[in-house]
Amino acid sequence: MKKIAVFTSGGDAPGMNACVRAVVRTAIYHGIEVIGVRRGYKGMVDADFVPMTSHSVSNIIGQGGTILKSARFDEFRDIEWRKKAYDNLIAEGVEGLIAIGGNGTFTGAKLLMENFGIPTIGCPGTIDNDLFGTDYTIGFDTAVNTALDAIDKIRDTAASHDRVFFVEVMGRDAGFIAMQSGIAGGAEDILVPEIPDSIDEVIENLKKGGENEKPSHIVVVAEGEEIGNATFIAQKAKEAMPNLDIRVSNLGHIQRGGAPSALDRILASRMGIAAVEGLIAGKSNVMSGIINDQVTYTSFDDAINKKKPLDVELNKMVEILNS
Amino acid sequence: MKKIAVFTSGGDAPGMNACVRAVVRTAIYHGIEVIGVRRGYKGMVDADFVPMTSHSVSNIIGQGGTILKSARFDEFRDIEWRKKAYDNLIAEGVEGLIAIGGNGTFTGAKLLMENFGIPTIGCPGTIDNDLFGTDYTIGFDTAVNTALDAIDKIRDTAASHDRVFFVEVMGRDAGFIAMQSGIAGGAEDILVPEIPDSIDEVIENLKKGGENEKPSHIVVVAEGEEIGNATFIAQKAKEAMPNLDIRVSNLGHIQRGGAPSALDRILASRMGIAAVEGLIAGKSNVMSGIINDQVTYTSFDDAINKKKPLDVELNKMVEILNS
Amino acid sequence: MKKIAVFTSGGDAPGMNACVRAVVRTAIYHGIEVIGVRRGYKGMVDADFVPMTSHSVSNIIGQGGTILKSARFDEFRDIEWRKKAYDNLIAEGVEGLIAIGGNGTFTGAKLLMENFGIPTIGCPGTIDNDLFGTDYTIGFDTAVNTALDAIDKIRDTAASHDRVFFVEVMGRDAGFIAMQSGIAGGAEDILVPEIPDSIDEVIENLKKGGENEKPSHIVVVAEGEEIGNATFIAQKAKEAMPNLDIRVSNLGHIQRGGAPSALDRILASRMGIAAVEGLIAGKSNVMSGIINDQVTYTSFDDAINKKKPLDVELNKMVEILNS
Amino acid sequence: MKKIAVFTSGGDAPGMNACVRAVVRTAIYHGIEVIGVRRGYKGMVDADFVPMTSHSVSNIIGQGGTILKSARFDEFRDIEWRKKAYDNLIAEGVEGLIAIGGNGTFTGAKLLMENFGIPTIGCPGTIDNDLFGTDYTIGFDTAVNTALDAIDKIRDTAASHDRVFFVEVMGRDAGFIAMQSGIAGGAEDILVPEIPDSIDEVIENLKKGGENEKPSHIVVVAEGEEIGNATFIAQKAKEAMPNLDIRVSNLGHIQRGGAPSALDRILASRMGIAAVEGLIAGKSNVMSGIINDQVTYTSFDDAINKKKPLDVELNKMVEILNS
């Protein structure tokens, strides 16, 4: 293998740059040339390529976002666009691909691989931690700490005013960010899609807090929570307990940015190294991951289709820790 | 003067605790007893008093929120409640009051003072910086840095996706937080109530950014912006330029919390000292403030009624800095 | 079991308070009374006990340090003092102990247990991560991120001046903090006691950096590094390469403080719960830990005497990532 | 004026990049070309010039360090090297200079100006805040907050162990960083060169703390403190009070790095704009500064030679706030 390409796609996540850096430097270490594809599949189709040297990735390990940029490109579902992308890669002499992203990214990579046989390995880059085949995804730890920092700040004002806050955090269909930031933030209640909840239970819990003379109360609500978003649940709570001073805070896009945590930088570096060394070893159509601190490779099929379970024992913790 | 009371009221602001600490320790330094009133005017009416010692305020200089808590208490507009508050204070032996808060807080204090003659000095505690008689209010610098940190994070994801973000920040009717966090965050546009804007100008500016190949674009919108909130303005922009990838982020209550900045801790300490020493010197019905680094006392009337101007020259800076 | 005691001992670590909170609330959840022992073994001998309620641990999950305080007490090696401690505990009705700390803490606990049979479980609280029987210790992740933040700041000034920095980090005899903060900080070289190094290799590496036109260069040195401390190594490097602009920064005690990270708060909470539930289940003389995300109990003997290995593969990463 | 050059020199300071950005964009706004000189006077002599466009300074407003780099170059004291620098600038068509730095930087600029008449304006970039002619220098607020964050962390561990810490902060011959970070950090004592101190007073103060049952105690020591550095003073204290658990922490170079605070970014932007607009207006041989929130120009002579006084009233605050 003489030349590979690396790209980031889908929602950006802190640590993607650390992963790009690891891919570039590992390739150089093994005597392989690297190019970066800008803006994911869109750039592949537009031949928006940039040669990557060791210097290209200097001082990016601590930068949020992705220097290779990302973009939506739904047209990639059509084979004609994938053909164009493949032709561009071949014209450039690319013999292998490293795709950094989530579910959608790997779906595109799998199709490209299946259609044209170009060896491809994925690195799990998403703050949502919703990929099967790795304990943590790149960006998750940073997003949890960003959400936690926000919850800590909200706690200051909640406690000062004896207020109830419903704090909505990201996570798409999964409750990982909500569960971890909620436990770490000492939330009185955490609502995630993986665990059945009801408005009645939320209200019951609010009442219990009041009786225990815990007048401030924080409920962390996952983006994908099934009974509704934070605003909806807050309204229902307000209807049931009109005397409470209830507020909503949707943390939004701050959760995607910022300097990656140590854990995310190391994770991203290990996965980037594993991806390049996997390609060299002849692997393809897999995602590199870390399970129990060991590098693993999971087929794109499993990574995309299998559901990563949330440890529901954590919910028990919330109950105990609010005793 | 043998005994004074201190309380916080209105929206909490980082640095209020540093101010409480300074009030308590300055009183002790001058041989004056201090009690804290919990939950502002509500606690005054409920006689919810707590004796304050030097130890009561240990290690609070860096804590967000207010250990004395705050609460709304609209009933204080009725003189009968103010009478009750006054009677409680007298029963406790209180001879002077330090009120930490904003406009509404000082309005209550002024009425109490005018009705019953209890000497009162205010300290400007609000993140909004909208009080006449001081260059900065307690909490403003911290809130600006919190908003800036969020804008920096949003910039990461905006730049990665070539997106346009409308970021709404707090400030009530004033644009101080928006202007400072916007300039510091390198915002391409800043909308504040003090400066007339129009949707057309916003769109014009967006187009100019596109032509200059600055594909990511951040517009900071003050809470009090007259053409509408961030969501409304974003919709109008989307209608005019449907190809843009436009997002909205409302930073919300995170701006109220967090450890106060160095500037806020020092400011709060100076103002707290000045308030107690002002009471001792026989001042009353005034707010302590810092103008051009000098302690000043401004009448409650002026602090409440006069409008603190926003330096509109700053808007010129935004234009220059986006050249 | 009706009543237990909890204490912190040895060097403080961020997350100890989260662990104390979990111990207290888990005990309450299971109907067990809890007292806190202040200042570790010294307080046990002085009968410096404080009853712990749910409110005692409100809002401490995010606080650095330990509300129960810690102290050195070398006299505990004498059985007469341990007898005194035991008598005090018995007089208080204590039937089980939770010890939060490191090696020295567990050694004391083990002796107390062996002498008098009081059931005891330990929670691994030390920033150094040098305890066998758990993947991470409480405080390690926070300390790594604090060191990383410092390295990031030092990188700013190193890069501006083309300087070489030797940055000394904590970790006692182990290189965990050095290795993780070094990789995450993009260090050009990392010196840890677990891996044989030499001044010659350090200088060789510095020369290689110069040839690769990487004029700024950061070497992270573990406190326990065998060839000497950062100042010594820097002097040797200066002698060999007098033209280099070499500086030393010893990060020192900032690494012990600060709000714990999300990971540390969750880890501490899980370990605290596991410790109490272990006592209830009849376990003793063990440390609760988390290995591969599962709660485990390791005998004090193993925790104290077995050496936790540092993954030397990580050093290979450093070489690759500096290609 | 058609073309100007900008450079940074001396110790780097957070906000220098924000200043470079403002200089570049203001020049572009007024139709003036800009080049950057890399590594200060050394680059001027080496003709190490780089053209600066609006894009050159994108997304640097929040970056620590200086993208133009800095370097010592003592040879600039010889007129022959200044002649070389001047010739290089003239060959490049440079008609004006913006020098970002401190005392040494302005001394070089003044000589160059006096020898060859090239119009030059300085921007005060130093964390030490020791320049006459401006209330704040670029980087000071960030350095104070960085030192404060470290002191807050050290407070965690000091309080947990009832320890005394001597914390040494930067500031060269001035005590600004020490005074502000010390007051904001709630230090029990602050030693700065501007105020006469003695070991006896330090020890007296330590004893008073002990009597007030404030067992933890933080003394902030300015780098330029005349009775000695933190290590020396700590030794003397230990000799006098051998029972105290005394530690020293020298914060070191972390104080130079990091993302600049909002205040520093705005200050740097205003000063950069003022410098370019000053050059256009025909000013030279002056430093732009902000006094009482107004832009001012102070002669290099005054900026270099006059001593900026430290408000010694602040020391009185320390005494009051420790009551």
Automatic annotation (TrEMBL), chains A, B, C, D:
What's in the GO CC field?
6-phosphofructokinase complex
- Could you say which cofactors this protein requires? Mg(2+)
* Main localization of the protein described in the UniProt heading: cytoplasm
Per UniProt, what is one GO molecular function of this protein?
identical protein binding
Q: Which residue range or ranges hold the Phosphofructokinase domain?
A: 3-278
Q: Which reaction does it catalyse?
A: beta-D-fructose 6-phosphate + ATP = beta-D-fructose 1,6-bisphosphate + ADP + H(+)
Q: Which UniProt keywords apply?
A: Allosteric enzyme, ATP-binding, Cytoplasm, Glycolysis, Kinase, Magnesium, Metal-binding, Nucleotide-binding, Transferase
Q: Where does Mg(2+) bind?
A: N103
Q: Which GO terms describe its biological process?
A: canonical glycolysis; fructose 1,6-bisphosphate metabolic process; fructose 6-phosphate metabolic process
Pfam families reported in the protein's UniProt record: PFK
* InterPro entries listed in its UniProt record: ATP_PFK (IPR022953), ATP_PFK_prok-type (IPR012003), PFKA_ATP_prok (IPR012828), Phosphofructokinase_CS (IPR015912), Phosphofructokinase_dom (IPR000023), PKF_sf (IPR035966)
Localisation per UniProt entry: Cytoplasm
The active site of this protein is located at D128
Q: Gene3D superfamilies this protein is in?
A: 3.40.50.450, Phosphofructokinase domain
Q: Which residues bind ATP?
A: G11, R72, F73, G102, N103, G104, T105
What the record says about activity regulation is:
Allosterically activated by ADP and other diphosphonucleosides, and allosterically inhibited by phosphoenolpyruvate.
Q: Where does ADP bind?
A: R21, A22, V23, V24, R25, R155, G186, A187, E188, K214, P215, S216
- Part of which pathway? Carbohydrate degradation; glycolysis; D-glyceraldehyde 3-phosphate and glycerone phosphate from D-glucose: step 3/4
Q: Where does substrate bind?
A: T126, I127, D128, R163, M170, G171, R172, E223, R247, H253, I254, Q255, R256
At the top level, the lineage of the source is Bacteria
State what this protein does: Catalyzes the phosphorylation of D-fructose 6-phosphate to fructose 1,6-bisphosphate by ATP, the first committing step of glycolysis.
Assembly description: Homotetramer.
HAMAP family in the record: Phosphofructokinase_I_B1
Identify this protein by name. ATP-dependent 6-phosphofructokinase
What is the source species?
Flammeovirga agarivorans
Per the record, the gene is pfkA
